[in-house]
Amino acid sequence: MTESKPRRSDATRAAILAAARERFAADGYERATIRAIAADAGIDPSMVMRYYGNKEKLFATAAEFDLRLPDIAGTPHEAVGEMLARHVLTRWEGDETMMALLRAGVTNEAAAERMRSIFAAQLGPVALALAPDPAEAPERAGLVATQVLGFALCRYVLKLPPVVEMDGETAAGWLGPTLQRYLTGA
Predict the structure, then answer these.
(1) Over the stretch 173-186, which tens digit does the pLDDT of each residue have?
(2) What is the DSSP string of 47-62?
(3) What is the pLDDT of residues 37-53, one digit of tens each?
(4) What angle do the packed helices 55-62 and 45-52 form, to 10 degrees?
(5) Quick one: DSSP state of residue 69?
(6) I need a labelling partner for 144 at 20 to 30 A (CA). Which of 27, 47, 67, 150 fits?
């Protein structure tokens, strides 16, 4: 039985995506260029265009992101807010993809739409499972997203000193009750 070698195109795509994630995180969507991403990947810019078509499509692919929300099935409903706050804080720490997506989402409609779809698809089921009225689940998920994204913007992008200086437990202690109210409150 022969082992199949990875195709060179797979390695090129992986190099482009890694370079794109780093460049979008460092420069934001607007300032990142195909030329710079290609240089970072050590390839010709035409290869980036060949595989991804344009910067928006490259960004959408590079910005694939899984919040990896924990299974809430075994968690008492009254503890879900703080558990999610802790999880989200841990998930955001040092994640270049989320930083790039957050920065770009502020100025670019395609990036903003990507953020909306990620949060709706991944937070929606949690809100649906916890909402007293299932019809309110989309609103509740949206409110949770406002807290999570607002906190991330202030802590990781704007770097507001009091928010940056909070340790994770303190931050979760502040965020948790708000997330809890948005998910389960009357």
Answers:
(1) 999 999 999 999 98
(2) HHHHHHSSHHHHHHHH
(3) 999 999 999 999 999 99
(4) 70
(5) P
(6) 27
pLDDT of residue 39: 97
Q: DSSP per residue over 84-95, as a string?
A: HHHHHHHHHTT-
Question: Hey, what are 153's tokens?
Answer: 């913007």
What pLDDT is stored for residue 5 in this prediction? 54
Length of the chain: 186
pLDDT of residue 62: 83
Looking at per-residue pLDDT, the higher value among 113 and 11 belongs to 11
CA 38 to the chain's CA centroid = 23
Question: How far is Cα 186 from Cα 183, in angstroms, rounded to an integer?
Answer: 9
Of 122, 140, 124, give the one whose Cα is nearest residue 185.
140
